[in-house]
Amino acid sequence: MSLRFRQLQAFHAIVETGTVTGAANQLGISQPGISNLLAQLERHTRLKLFERSKGRLIPTPEAGVLYQEIDTVVRGLDHVAQAVTDLQNKQAGQLQVASPHSLSFGMMPKLIAEFSADKPDMSIAFQSNYSTKVQEWVLAGLFEVGICELPLLYDSFETEMFQFETLCALPEDSPLAQYDVLTPEILEDEPFIVMGPEHMTHRRTREAFHNAGKRWRPRVHSHLFKNNLSFVKEGMGVTILDPFVVKFDREGGFITRPFRPAVTIEMAIITSKARPLSAIGQEFRKILSAELAAYRI
Q1: Could you say which of 55, 88, 121 is where a domain stops?
Q2: pTM as predicted
Q3: Running DSSP on this structure, what letter comes out for residue 142?
Q4: Strands 238-241 and 167-171
């Protein structure tokens, strides 16, 4: 017996709507087309599937049994068709993004929420970690799109580079607020909250003080910009921050000033050269690029 899915779909639609007209409207084909498909199905199965009563088609007991068997199949394939449409319209799929911690406390959740607002069926995988780990994740295929600080440890990425200027954060009641710009001369012997010695902001701030011939006084060493800002709010010193922690802090308790010579930080959007980027990934990468571009120098 050779049953075609279109025959089963037509039969299913007739049971659902009760009429050939309703089935035709549901499937978007002509009434004669529906009638022909039903006739083919009855011929192939050698079963009478409907009785006519006052313009409606009443399923026979045999039709009731057949309907129960094919209902899951028809609905399942309808869901597949809808999933394909959603993917074509970028309404479904999975967004897989990883970023450094500093972007995870405000910027990335906000951007992902805005991106997914019209994509209710899209699933989201987001993680933050140190930049070396983000690179490993993208390289391994665990995430499609990554944002990381430089340097890049592998040559297996498609990249877009960004450079940002940091800001000097200080307690809101600090007497240093009188200055419009802070320098090593002004901040000599001021207690600093700093990132680890391997971090680019640590090296570049130390170099700025060295070149000015001024003493730099690191007091607290931490590993996250967010932690450093918390120490500033407690009055333990000043710190150099990336612009994202500053922008998305909602608590206050600190002020910022430019620092000269400027201490910059470089980041990159990375994707794998070895794997094609999904339509969702491509769309999000464009939006992420535009967002980061607003902060670049």
Answers
A1: 88
A2: 0.70
A3: S
A4: antiparallel
The CATH code of the domain that includes 247 is 3.40.190.10
Rounded CA-CA distance 131/123 in Å is 24
Q: Per residue of the chain (297 residues), give pLDDT as tens.
A: 567 888 888 889 998 898 889 989 988 999 999 999 989 988 988 889 998 887 788 899 988 888 888 887 777 676 666 555 555 555 457 899 999 999 999 999 999 999 999 998 899 999 999 999 999 999 999 999 999 999 999 999 999 999 999 999 999 999 999 999 999 999 999 999 999 999 999 999 999 999 999 999 999 999 999 999 999 999 999 999 999 999 999 999 999 999 999 999 999 999 999 999 999 999 999 999 999 999 998
* Cβ-contact 99, 130 below 8 angstroms: no
Instruction: Examine residue 227 and state whether it is found in any structural domain, yes or no.
Output: yes
Residue 160 lies in a domain: no
**Other Cβ atoms within 10 Å of 108 Cβ, number:** 22
125 found inside a domain: yes
